[in-house]
Amino acid sequence: MALRILPFRQYSEHDVVNLYSVIDSDVCDSTVASDSALGDAGVFVKVSAGNFDADPVTYQDRTYLGKTDYPFIGNEAMYPEVNLKITGSSSGETPFGLTLYQTAKHDENGEKLLYHPEKANELQAMLPGQAVPVLTRGIVTLAQTAFDGPANSYTPGNGIIASDNTVGKITGSSAVDRHTSGVFGHVLGTGTRSNVGITTDQFSGDYIVVSFDCN
């Protein structure tokens, strides 16, 4: 389960939307792999299903639950899933926002987070089908796995746009005007985190700090 955003961030909870879950094919299936899927935390997303006339939650038949076809149970569709969906934004699109939590099935030991809700909370992870908090505006620090190209190619003050190489990532733009097509934020600065001592820094490597507004 990958974290593409570093701890330093500034935002208001009023700019966080908790209505959408990632589509099933985007869910992080791996455990601690970096940059594994569109279920990572720190993915720029768009709305892929936004029908508010549909039931907010429906029950699905998911193998994630394990065996559900025991006699006399009556219905194998027992896994709750939020129907409103998001997926990674693509080139030329203005994202809806940035995922603050990851969506994951297992912890680093391969254990189902379904059975360990306290561990899911510690990992800031949502289960498949649960609504993911999406930040629509704020300042965040992005790890190398969240953007294309080296950090030193991102000039402070220049704009950011959705990447034309990798869905869900961003790239830099020489344009700085928010009215320029595709520009939805700016680079505030860049840097590099290094390991100190014998402890491995989970967030070591290049990073960029960006300010964005998808509203």
Task: Describe the protein's architecture and organization.
- Helices cover 3% and strands 33% of the residues.
- By secondary structure, it is mostly beta strands.
- It has one domain (5-213).
- The strands form 4 sheets. It has a 6-stranded antiparallel β-sheet, with no helix packed on it.
- The longest helix is centred in the middle third of the chain and has 6 residues, at 117-122.
- The mean pLDDT is 89.
Q: Number of folding domains?
A: 1
Mean pLDDT, to the nearest integer, reads 89
Put simply, the count of helices is: 1
Query: Main β-sheet, in a few words?
Result: 6 strands, antiparallel
State the secondary-structure class: mainly beta
> How many beta-strand elements?
16
User: Shape, please?
Assistant: globular
Span between N and C termini?
28 Å
Largest sheet, order of strands side by side?
Answer: 1-12-16-15-13-14
Characteristic key phrases:
215 residues, single chain, 1 helix, 6-stranded antiparallel sheet, mainly beta
In short:
With 215 residues, the protein is mainly β. The chain is 3% helix and 33% strand.
Topology:
Blueprint: E1 5-10, E2 16-17, E3 21-22, E4 44-49, E5 57-60, E6 79-82, E7 85-88, E8 97-99, E9 102-103, H1 117-122, E10 125-126, E11 134-135, E12 137-143, E13 159-162, E14 170-173, E15 185-193, E16 205-213
Parallel strand pairs: 3-7, 9-10
Antiparallel strand pairs: 1-12, 2-11, 4-7, 4-8, 5-6, 8-11, 12-16, 13-14, 13-15, 15-16
